[in-house]
Amino acid sequence: MKITKVEDFQIWKSSIELSKTVYRITGNENFKKDYDLVRQIRRAANSVSSNISEGFERNNNNEFIRTLRIAKGSAGEVKNQLEIAFSVGYLPNEEYISTKKEVEILIKQIGKLISYLCAKRKQYILSQKTRSTRQTRSTRQTRSTR
């Protein structure tokens, strides 16, 4: 199946779900009092899906890989901020564990997509080098038989 729009990517769907989760948990009474942490974790969560979208829409695998790495870093930032929120008592244990797991799954999914795209890029580069070598040999043979 060829993916023609970013909404077809499971990682994009998961990143939107992460943003929704972050908005929900930061709305609780304890958490929402810490305005700076609320803004920071929300921005980081929103950055994940935004970077996935931005990279995809550039129609360039190198750019997509670069923005996926940024998205993965933003997901790591969310994970760290969850740890802070839990350690200062803003999140109950169950909510912390389930949200942390959600982020960790997303980080792994992004990492796998990055690995896949890098492998495809390497495979393409090698095929181009092989093609170029064959063409060079063919040209030399044609010249030497003249």
Would you kindly provide a written description of the structure presented here, covering whatever features stand out?
This protein is mainly alpha-helical. It has one domain: 23S rRNA-intervening sequence (de novo design (two linked rop proteins)). 84% of the residues lie in helices and 0% in strands. It is built from 5 helices and no strands. α1 runs antiparallel to α5 (93-144) and α3 runs antiparallel to α4 (61-87). The chain is elongated and about 75 Å long. The termini are far apart. The model has no long low-confidence stretch (mean pLDDT 91).
The total tally of domains equals 1
CATH architecture descriptor name:
Up-down Bundle
End-to-end gap: 48 Å
Largest sheet properties: none
Structural class, by secondary structure, is: mainly alpha
Order of helices and strands: HHHHH
Q: Quick check: average pLDDT?
A: 91
Q: What kind of oligomer do you see?
A: single chain
CATH class reads Mainly Alpha
Instruction: Classify the fold: give the CATH topology.
Output: de novo design (two linked rop proteins)
Shape: elongated
How many β-strand stretches?
Answer: 0
**Rg calc:** 22 Å
* Unreliable runs: none
Summarize this structure as a short list of keywords or feature phrases.
5 helices; 0% strand; 84% helix; 146 residues; elongated; mainly alpha
Structure summarized in a few sentences:
With 146 residues, this protein is mainly alpha-helical. Helix content is 84%, strand content 0%. The chain has a single domain (6-115), classed as 23S rRNA-intervening sequence (de novo design (two linked rop proteins), Up-down Bundle).
